[in-house]
């Protein structure tokens, strides 16, 4: 099932998020979490996200505004390191509660509660109309980098905040897209340094080969989606897709928060 669902999610969301700057990691991480432990799901999402963004740099990176990349990207890298470290502090914590539903025991872990709440918050950004065009003054761009990097490190979800801050930089569309992609790569590389130390160097042998193959297949699907998105740049509207993504995230976040997944 995961070999069908995850590539489908990757190809469709990657297609529609090349130009919005967010969505792939936001939806792909809960999809991975349906099949794998949460820390593995976040790390796997980071790998797909990084490789896909490197491919996007090949497509649109030449248009990036380097001054904005510097002001936003360095704080974002620092925030990603902090968020990634906190993620694994939460992972080592024991369940805080449990309950029985339909004769099954469900445990509430701090990490799932924290990530579930974050997912719900990001879902509301997709679903509530007045949040659609939320933007921040460009004087806060470095703070925005730190904040979005932190959420990227702790949950894999950073793009919505990153786009909200970068849209106030008065860049042409092409520069905004290129800058968004380069900053995303900076965050992905930063958090993967922590994930690699905490997961792959310690528990790599515990990760089944099928999981590694799934990451590769999902990455290739995301490449295809990004290529299609490049071709359909002027034709695609993502308003309906944002509603679907938001609803799915809301359900996943609530389910994760109460220990159902």
What gap, in angstroms, lies between the N and C termini? Answer: 16 Å
Low-confidence stretches: none
Care to count the β-strands? 2
| Spatial sequence of strands, sheet with the most strands | 1-2
Calculate the mean pLDDT score and round it.
76
- Structural class of the helix and strand makeup? mainly alpha
Integer tally of domains: 1
Overall form: globular
Helical residue percent band: over 70%
Q: Figure out the total of helices.
A: 10
Tell me the major beta sheet.
2 strands, antiparallel
Strand content: under 5%
Name the helix and strand elements from N-terminus to C-terminus, one letter apiece: HHHHEEHHHHHH
Radius of gyration: 17 Å
Question: What does this protein structure show overall?
Answer:
The chain is mainly alpha-helical. The chain has one domain. The protein has 10 helices and 2 strands, in the order ααααββαααααα. The protein has helices at 2-17, 24-33, 38-60, 66-91, 110-127, 141-155, 159-166, 173-203, 209-231, 239-257, and strands at 97-101, 104-108. It is globular. The two termini are 16 Å apart. 46% of the residues are buried.
């Amino acid at each position: 099932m995961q070999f069908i669902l995850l590539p489908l999610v990757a190809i469709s969301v990657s297609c529609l998020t090349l130009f919005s700057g967010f969505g792939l990691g936001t939806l792909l991480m809960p999809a991975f979490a349906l099949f794998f432990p949460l820390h593995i799901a976040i790390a796997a999402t980071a790998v797909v996200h990084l490789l896909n963004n490197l491919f996007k740099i090949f497509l649109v990176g030449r248009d990036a505004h380097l001054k904005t990349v510097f002001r936003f990207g360095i704080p974002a890298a620092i925030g990603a390191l902090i968020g990634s470290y906190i993620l694994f502090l939460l992972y080592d914590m024991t369940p805080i509660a449990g309950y029985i539903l339909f004769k099954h025991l469900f445990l509430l872990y701090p990490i799932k509660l924290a990530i579930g709440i974050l997912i719900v918050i990001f879902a509301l950004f997709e679903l509530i109309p007045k949040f659609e065009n939320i933007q921040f003054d460009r004087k806060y761009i470095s703070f925005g980098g730190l904040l979005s990097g932190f959420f990227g490190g702790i949950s894999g979800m950073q793009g919505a905040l990153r786009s909200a801050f970068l849209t106030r930089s008065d860049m042409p569309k092409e520069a905004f897209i290129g800058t968004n992609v380069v900053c995303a790569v900076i965050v992905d590389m930063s958090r993967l340094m922590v994930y690699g130390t905490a997961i792959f160097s310690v528990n790599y042998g515990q990760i089944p080969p099928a999981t590694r193959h799934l990451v590769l297949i999902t990455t290739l699907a995301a490449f295809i989606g990004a290529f299609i998105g490049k071709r359909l740049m002027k034709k695609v509207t993502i308003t309906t897709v944002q509603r679907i993504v938001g609803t799915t995230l809301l359900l996943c976040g609530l389910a994760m928060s109460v220990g159902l997944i």
